[in-house]
Structure formats: C-alpha cells, structure tokens
Amino acid sequence: MTSVLRAQGLGKRYGRRWALRECTIDIPAGHVVGLVGPNGAGKTTLLKLAAGQLEPTAGDITVLGGRPGGSPAQLAKVGFVAQDTPVYAGLTVAEHLRLGARLNPRWDDAMARERIARIGLAPAQRAGRLSGGQRAQLALTLGLAKRPELLILDEPVASLDPLARREFLQGLMEAVAEHELSVVLSSHLVSDLERVCDFLIVLVGSRVPVAAETERLLATHYRLTGPRRDPDRLPAGQHVVSARHTDRQSTYVIRTDASIHDPAWTVGQLSLEDLVLAYMEKRPAESRRVALEVQR
C-alpha cells in the first residue's frame, strides 16, 4: 500500500513542552482520511509538520516519498488549508487567484475561476467582506487549484454553521471525485467525518490506537451489554476498547473479527462517533497496547 504520509517516532517540542512525541503513523494514498483526537493530542502539529511549516525535533516524516517542504517541487505536491482558513482580508477574490498563480507552478487557473463562479463569489469582492463559509470556500479553491497530490485540511469547518459546513464538504467531495487526490482532514465534528471519510485515524497522546478503513472499523467493533463480567472472562479474540461497570451490569466496546454467540450479551452496532469516543477514553499506555493489537 502506497503511503502519502509516513512518520516514525516523530516529535515536536516547543521549549520544554512536547506538542507531539514518538508518533508513528502511516497514511495510505487514495483515501479521504479523517484525523480525530482530543485537544492537545498533536493533530495540528502533525499536519503542520506534514505541510513543511514546522521542522521536527525528533524522528522522521516523509510526505509523498520526500521531505516536507524540502524543495519547490515537493511543496507544489501538497495543498494546505489551515484551521482559520486564512485569506488576506484586503485582497479581492480575483487578487487571491492571481497570487496563487504566481506562487504555484502547477496552478490551474481555469479550474479556480470556474469554481469561484460556481460557488457564487464575486471576483471584485474583498475577502474581508466575505462570510465565514465564503472564506472557507475561497481557501479550499486556492488549495485545490495548486493541483496537489495531497490536500491537508486542519479543522476547516469548525467555525462554520451547518449549511456552510455541508456546502464546503460537498465541494470537497466533488473535487476528490474529479481530481482523484488524497485528503487528510482533521476535525472534532465526527458526524462530518462520517459523511466524507473512508479511512479513520485516532490520535491520542501522540499515539495512534486505531487506523483503518471506516467500513472495516464499523464491521469489527461492537457494544456488549449484560451481567457484570470481568474482562479476563471474555474470549481471547475479543479485545476490549473501553469498559463501564455498575454493580450488576457491564458494558464493553470490543474489537473482534469473530461472531459473538454468547446469549448473555446484548450486542449493538456502533456509530463512528461511538467508536472514536471509546478510543479517546483510553489512557496513552492502553492506546499503545490496543494499537499493537489492531496492527496484527
């Protein structure tokens, strides 16, 4: 499987504080990848390292087979839309497109202009007068018109209303289908990831407890509810992701490739949000152990 991003023991330190430490990750090509995790897990730092905006303190990272930001050709392969969907308030929409054409050797001006017209942005309008959704669409257009092989989006819809989020994600999926690019999208809004992502990575405390196609994840994770039972009494093939107990009842989220036949359990399917929350509840040491199990 070809990787668009691969990191081994990756770390970034600011003074005495590690924003990312000992992160090992392998992101496959040809997917829309959702990257999710709690605040402080290192998601933004990882994406900035991948975009070449930061230099690692420790470990190694390659993007599309090369060092991030290592050359103009390498930079041209990656599009990046930061968390605040940055645009220049004093520049018009048309001036943003001209600037993009000057800075990017693979710039697709026809696509940029067609997309701006399709989403209803007036070329003469200054970016500072656009709505949040319009600024996000302009930033996405600039990223797409680079014709990147990998598009990195760091929580691009976090501040948008539901309608603007839907329009942004719809435009993203249309671009993915048309241009066959790989995407890494970080977000706290798991419902949005569920709509657009076919591969999920959970990052907790710089560890990756789970990384797989969403279809496979949902097919191999279950919620078990029944009489109180200690985890060591579960079958060997049922790997506990999270557990909750009362005096009389146990509720487990488990991962298993086998069928569950125990009549004592009520077996339920998980939503992607349920699955993400179960992994985010785990402590880092537990996440490391489960990650090794998932990879086997």
TrEMBL record:
SUPFAM superfamilies on file: P-loop containing nucleoside triphosphate hydrolases (SSF52540)
Keyword line: ATP-binding, Nucleotide-binding, Transport
Record SMART domains: AAA
Domain ABC transporter, residue spans: 5-230
Gene Ontology MF terms: ATP binding; ATP hydrolysis activity
Pfam family, one: ABC_tran
Keyword Lipoprotein on entry: no
Keyword ATP-binding (UniProt): yes
Superkingdom as given in the UniProt entry: Bacteria
PROSITE patterns reported in the protein's UniProt record: ABC_TRANSPORTER_2
Entry protein name: ABC transporter ATP-binding protein
Organism: Planobispora siamensis
